[in-house]
Amino acid sequence: MTQRRALLASALAGLAVPRLARAQAWPTRPVRIVVPDAPGGGNDSTARIFANHLEQALGQPVPVDNRAGAGGRIGVEHAFRSPGDGTTLLLGNAGSNGINAALYRDLPYNLETSFVPISLLVTGPNVLAVNPRVLPVASVAELLALIRSQPRGHFNYATAGAGSSAHFSAELFKAMTDTDLVHVPFRGAAGMAQAAVAGDAPFLIANMVNVMPFIRRGELRMLAVTSLDRWPDAPEVPTLHESGLQGFETIAWNGLFGPPGLPDAIVQRLLPELRRIGALPEVVDRIKLLGGTIVTSPPEVLAARVRADIAKWKELAQRANIRIDG
Length: 326
What we know:
Belongs to the UPF0065 (bug) family. This protein is α/β, with parallel strands linked by helices.
């Protein structure tokens, strides 16, 4: 009996060796990072910064594959249907991998369980900003007074896309202030920022990383941040919570996920590289210039963030009557 068990254990171990060896040899081919956003935004920038350093660490090309549209659903579904062999990763975010669970009923995947969490990468608040040439206001109170001085629906606001964390923040802003603002979604942050700077959509709520360059140049004016506490890199800017919208809090984030079936050995291979890259001074500085903070983490922290966000967004969407599809 003991001999039979030993033979069985030896056979099972032999079956496991090729799979382990393949994971240890990974990668032998290029590793794509799918970004469910258009080029030029904060999530795209994060992916490219990390991809550049991962190429050196892994010894394989790490191209960024932008698949924007449908509030991030196109890119996320593409990653979901990709093989879990380590040749495809997903740079998900608060909208594509969190808020969408509250806004859409027809997702072909489960955002809590379908993807393999690897690591959080960057967090940052959303910001409420205006084009000061078109809306010469210096505070949230002044902006609300201006909005309420005009007929309902007179003003529009821009976001980088329907279903983004910025869109959800703006809809929550509307609900909490009882204002009627027309949503103008763009297919990515670049178009949104250009429209705001041109004055076509002079009021916006956006991820900080998407608008900081324009704020630094004075083309946009930041009135408030959406975090509950003031952001350390912009301590002079008040929060919406302290500007009269008590309890208002939304945080933008992005993180790295794998498709279903991604081996844990590949996750463990990536984690130390992501931590190392995230600690490089030049990477920290580049992300900080965009208005973000690097927060590389264990997989369970990213999984917990997704679960907590989905629960929060579903409750807020129901309370504020926010939904995109019927």
